[in-house]
Amino acid sequence: MSTDFETSFDDGAASTGASRRSARRSRGRLTTLAMVGALLWMGSASLEATELPSPSVPPAPDSEVGTISGEVRAAGSGQPLVSVQVAVIGSGIGTITGPDGGFVLENIPAGEHVLRAQLLGYRTVQESVHLEAGQNVTVDLTLSESAIGLDEIVVTGTAGQARRREVGNQITQINMAEVQEPVASMDQLLQGRSTGMTVTSHGGAFGGGAAIRLRGNVSLSMSNQPLIFIDGVRQSAEGYPVNNTEGDFPHYGSSSQMSPLNEIHPGDIERIEIVKGAAATTLYGSEASAGVIQIFTRQGASGSPQWTFQSDHGVDWVRPFGSSQRPYVGMEPFLRNAYGTQNSLSASGGLGAANYYLSGVYEVGDGVLPNDHQDRVGLRANLSLEARSDLLLQLHTAYSRHALDITHTGNSAMAIPFSVFRAPNNAFGTTDPEVIRELTDAKIWQDNDRFLTSLTAVWEPNSRTTQRATVGLDRSAFHGRQHRPLGFNNDPQGSMSDTRWESRTITLDYTGNYTLLQDPSGEAVASTLSWGLQGTSTEESKLDGFGRGFPGPGRHTLSNMASGLLFSSEQRRVSGGFFGQSMVAFRDRVFVTAGARVDGHSVFGENLGLQTYPKLSASWVISDEALWPESWGDVKLRAAYGLAGRAPGAFDAVQTWTAHSFGGAASFIPENVGNPELGPEKTRETEVGFDGSWLNGRLAVDFTFYHQDTRDALFAIAQPPTQGFLSSQLENVGALSNRGLELSVDGRVMEQPGFTWNLGANLSTNRSEVLDIGTATVSSIVEGHPAPVMRGAYVRNADAFEDPDIDPDHFYGPNAPTRIVGLNTSLDFRNGVSLSARGEYQGGHYIRDGTSHNMVNRGAGAPGCDDAYEHVPYSDYPQGDLSQVTALDRARCYRESLLNGMWNIPADFFKVREITLHVPATRVVPGARTASLTFSLRNAFRWTNDDFPSFDPEMIPSRDSLSSLFVGITEHVPDPARVAVSLRVTF
Amino acid sequence: MRRIRFTVFGALLVLAACDFDVSNPGPIEADALNDPAAFEGLVRGMSQATSFALWRLAFVGGEVSRELIEAGRFFSPKLPVVPGQLTQESIGSRYWNPAVRARWVAEDGVRRFRELLDDFDSSPLAVRALLHAGFANRMLGENFCEAVIDSGPAEPNEVYFERAEGQFTEALRIAETLGDSEAVHAARAGRAGVRIYLDDWPGAADDAASVPDGFVREAEYYGDQGLDQYNNLYWSNANSPFRTYSIAETFYESYYEETGDPRAAWGTDPNQPVGELAHVRWLFTVNKHNDFDAPINVASGREMRLIEAEAQLRRGDAAAAVNILNDLRHTVVSDHDGAPLAPWPETADLEKAWEYLKLERGIELWIEGRRMGDLRRWTADGSLGETVDVSDRIRLCLPIADSEKDTNPNLDPNHQDPINPAYTGR
């Protein structure tokens, strides 16, 4: 059988789109009607098709083999290409190129062979090789960039592997070989990499994860985080629990919700696939309406070990976020330049039928606030074994431990930013930073422990059949502690909490593919049938202890405390589904795929039953048609339609009461009304678009229009309190729509020997509208308006120097960006030096600056009003001379006139995400095969519109989870800027 | 091909065999509460629900009736000045919702026991449930302008008192059958407390007279059971960074300074550094609720004496009323000198006697969630208290919350409160 990487190769005639057209130019076309007819015929075709023999070649004696070696370089720049898959077609023998672009293929039977080299983003090339027994043939290959990669293999949402040309929906790939800057986290890696994707950080809340949204919000009550898969195993996309204890006021705990995604070491990743909507995620069923991100980690390849060492060093600092009078809003004494380093070592190679990739990473560093510190260790072992000629086994195992000390931030009287921003109206009644510094005596610690393992078996009993089964375990554990010492200002007796949480998700995934009809000529009809079964079981348990009253100074456990509380919870969610799919290809240029998934879930109401999600997609590589002039470039048209869902929570369908211990005896309080009809909300998506490549691959355009309709949308419907149940009940009563377009344009502006200038831009728009909310009453969810909408009091004559003319209930606009523009450019030089930059604009939305609102309301005055305060100090209002104060400032800068909504502000911004200089350094590192230095500057420049007064437009409200619907500002400092240098050495 | 068919069939079979019926521990399914083993827990739940609602109403009621003031750090200090600042949203989530839940939990328990207990008429559980229901209804009646029962229409708030009177009467009957004197006193004290709102002063005085001075019924709080079981009147004032209220600038600040009456004692927190502000209001702490588990009185013999005194006033006997008040004061020792408090001057002047009664009732029942009710009925009588300006009618009762108006099919979302029409909430 072929090795795993080779299953991603096209066993048909290797050719570029242009050569295909040449071969087929004289041939006729099928009409659309014939295509549909053929599809229907194929759907009813007998499964008794003839099985073809396996292409595997039996091993030859040593005396009859030779070696093929060489290197692969990029056309134009001549730079060596890393991770190129190089294989001898039909032999099952292949490898990947090392950092110097080199490869060695040993034990190749003597004879005529075709060597193939393939790399994401480049056109596949093939070269005939004649090999004599005992001979070592050198074959150097050159790959040209392929703008749209029609023959690239993708797997996400496709029921097994598929060539990009076959896929009717948009799919984004991030190839790590093309990411040059040192990436500190997965959030950083994803930010600004795909059209229609926003990655919003937790601000300066140390360790906090990011909220990821693909094509905006598709749910108003449930999570909008996409599903995450790693090597085919589902992991939790939601954050770790926030380090709060049920025993104390939740504000007093951490306000950082961490993301399991960030426990993945970016250096272990080979590529990422992103599909954004229900049209592409149907086969993932009831929890996939917000999209799917699939991560593939590196694999070893046969050959001697390749060692890679990388050492990253960076310094974070906070850029001014206040006014010219108060650039850091008083936080200067508490901010610092924070050094951090990440060092990793990996080895990959192969021993006979077994390949391996092993890696370890250690990260240590501080954050910009006084208590922030982290240590992280990550280990990974990816092993693959060709157990039989038709059976490949893969084992992926990763472990990480992430220990953090976190400064208390957010909307809490125990937090430093809060106490500084509101000074002197804080718990101390002072502005003195040395008094406020006592808050650093309160400690928040968090240890995240993650173990991810999966075993995949790929069985190819014959050339028509592939069966793949994966069983995986994702175990995430969290140990959170808080400690307020004896005599602490706000808790004189002292208190501590100790919280343990564990989540185990077991995934079982089976997919079968059968080729009903083969079309080696590419001129007839081909067809595949796919089927699959997935099961997921997630168990979560939490044990949370809180104690108050230390017996004395020093370190203690909960057992030592004067009083203690214990809370525990457990829940299990089970889901399962199966799917069937059929793809019919007409002349290898028109592809029609139809399928459906049927799901069951333990969280559905007892009256609901199984749920069905259909899909239909088509693609047409129109540029392969005979009448298409070659000068018109490569173009694929595509359209897809599909449904996916989002399931409610574990207890939402059942009427429940909570049990407490009240005075040492059990007591019952009503909790959840329950809804036996409760089911998933379903998002129906239609997308159409095209992928095009012109000017010999120098210009690539990807365009998509999408329209999503979420029906049976889950809304939390408030119940009449006089009926006893105070919590809202989820009901499938709503509807919303979401539509937009995504356009990306990438071009090589200049390509000369030794120099290439690439320039890219992408644009995405998103317009959401709430269509129906049933009987729900939520001020930010209103029929006919975006979801969610910012509303509140509004000053009609904002800039006039007169009393404000107030609209008391104005709809400002959406809270999520409606337009995103990404820009990227790179300059590649002959000697391997490259300079690249990425920037992103987001706009069209409004956020609430809750920090400024609270500062005004609590008597401190907002930094955005400092100019107004120069005319009329905060304390003088309304007696001062207001003639130089605008109507807007009169309405929002003084407590006496402040109304809710006054700090809803337009949040348009442009940020330079990254500027990176990559310099080869092989000559200065003795013994290295390759070495490079990379310098990067991140988040160092920001533009906001004139109406955005202070803080930062990319912050998640305090204590809100990553799945929160809202973006807004609470008492944090913004995300820091970072300068970093990275040394990467291979040997 | 057979192999593939078998695989597909097997996959479907596995799915069909999947058991999606998961039962998770933790939350209790409603039917499980029909088990007699759960009945004690249901009664404890009634107590917990009432306690939770009571501290909240004591807080907001104290604030709007000037028993305390907003400290100005976390909620707007404008609250006592601009009634509109007490938003519909906060009324719903903080005050209305827990209060109406307390009534529902207790009455649901009574319904359940009536249906499931063969010996309801002689059951101690029934007595306890009826008492909780009665006091929950009294709490609602004293603090809210109108009544809503089980998502029904708006009704006069007397409905709460009428339900309470019936529940106390039934509790009294069963308690007497059982010979449970504590429960008998509680039922009579509760019924006396609601009869004064139903203008049944003879009945109230009769009930009050049967309750001894030393009787006290308390709402329970626990410092070792988590936030929702704290007496948050303590936690939010003295031992948390919230310090949401203060007694600075209230009548009670100067009253305690002058008399040392421990019922209105306050202090400053020795653990707090002195801030830059000349007068940090939130550093004034209330001594009455001095720990997480400090109880709040729901009914007491001392309250009964006040009812008897008021009944004397309503009969026109000022001297008898003041005598009762002074008997009460004589039992209280001043923090200043350890001597009994100075009595109110003896007087036959009804107006003066009313003033003393209103002050004494305010002092005795300070921050117990009772003051708004008193102010409202005295306003209805046309005799205002001397200590409070009630021109802001918010000080008399809280309206039906939007959380009810927006969800109750029997209520107009724009329903106007008859006492506080400003509270349209729109």
- What is the CATH class of the domain at 41-214 and 371-405 in chain B? Mainly Alpha
Gap between N and C termini of chain A, in Å?
A: 31 Å
Largest sheet of chain A: 22 strands, antiparallel, barrel
CATH topological fold name of the domain at 41-214 and 371-405 in chain B: Serine Threonine Protein Phosphatase 5, Tetratricopeptide repeat
Mean pLDDT, all residues of chain A: 85
Number of helices of chain B: 14
Strand content bin of chain B: 5-15%
Order of helices and strands of chain B: HEHEHHEEHHHEHEHEEEHHHHH
Q: What gross morphology of chain A would you assign?
A: globular
Biggest interface reads: A-B, 92 and 81 residues
**Average pLDDT taken over every residue of chain B:** 84
Total beta strand runs of chain B: 9
Largest sheet of chain B: 2 strands, antiparallel
Class by alpha and beta content of chain A: mainly beta
**CATH architectural type of the domain at 41-214 and 371-405 in chain B:** Alpha Horseshoe
